Amino acid sequence: MTTILLTGGGTGGHIMPNIALLPELKKRFDKIYYAGVKGGREEGIAATHSIPFIAVPAIKLDRSNKLSNLAIPLKFPKCVRAAKKALRGISPDVVFCKGGFVSLPCAYAARSLGIPVITHESDLSLGVANRLISKFSEATITSYESTDGGNNSVYIGNPLRDELLYAVASPLPITCDRTKPVILVVGGSCGARSLNEAIWSNLDRLCERYNILHITGSADNPAHAGYYPISYTDRIFDYYKAADGVISRCGAGAACELLALRKRILFVPLSNKASRGDQVANAEYYKDKGYALTCNEAQLSSDAIYWIDKLLSMPPPAYIRDREINSKIAQLCYDIACKSK
Question: CA-to-CA distance for 126 and 276, rounded, in angstroms?
Fold first, then answer.
C-alpha cells in the first residue's frame, strides 16, 4: 500500500494543480489524502473529487500589515504539532506540497517525522513557502527551466487538468454578435477589482468593436449591450475556447492554461505593490519568448482599443506543451515514495 498526502490551498493556483494530478496519482497510489485549512476552498474542492480531507491549521504571511507577522514564530509551532498528529494518523509515504502558507505545517511536520517532501513551484521565482521547503525537499519541481529551485531542483512543468485540453466545449449561456471579435477578460481569484475597472471605464468604446466576456469575481456588474459579465464559472475552458483574444492576470496556472490552448493573450499582471512580483516576472518571461503581450492597468485603461487591436493582430503563440507533465510529476512522487518504504 502506497499513500500520498497532497497539500496546498487558499487560492486556485495552490489547489488546482493538485487536482490536475489526481488521474495520474490514482494509477500509482493506493491512498490519496488532501490536507488544508478547515473551511478553506481546498476542503470543498477535495470533497468534490472524493478525496479524504484532513484539516490542519496554518498561518498566513500578511504583506499589508507586517506587524501582524510578528506572531508567526509563536503560532507556527502549534500548526506543525497539529500537522504531525494528522500525519501520524495516515502514515503517508510522501507529502506533495503545492507551495503557499497552507503547505508549510505539513511540510515541516513531514520533515520531523522522516517522511519525504516534494514541492512544486508554478511561478518563475520561488514563493516564500517554497523557498523554505526547498531547503529540505527531496525534489523541488519547477514550471520554468530557468527557475532556481535549489540543489534538488527538477524542471518538469505545471500540471493542468485533462479536461482543459481535451474536453468538448459546451455552448455559452449567451448570444453574441458573431460579426465582432470575442474578447475574454479574466481577473483571477484575487486582485480583479482594478482590472475590472479598467474594462468598465471603457465599455462604450469596447462594445462598439468587440463582444466582451468578463469573468469579474463580482456580483455588482454594470449592464451594457455587447458586454457579458460572469461572476464566476467552473467551466472556464468553455470561455477560453470561445475567445478570439484573452486579457488576463498572469498567475502561473491561468498563463499555462491559455498557452496550452494557444490563445492570443494580453497579460495585465498584478503589480509588485499588490503581490510579491511573481505575476510581473511571469508576464515578462512570456513577452520575451514572443508568446504574449503585456501592459499594466493604467495602460489598458487609457488605451484599451490600441491594446486589444494589437492583441487580435498577433498570431497564436508558437507554444508546444509537453503532454506528459502530469505523468512525470506523479511518477517522481511514486519513485520517491517507494524509496522511503
Answer: 10
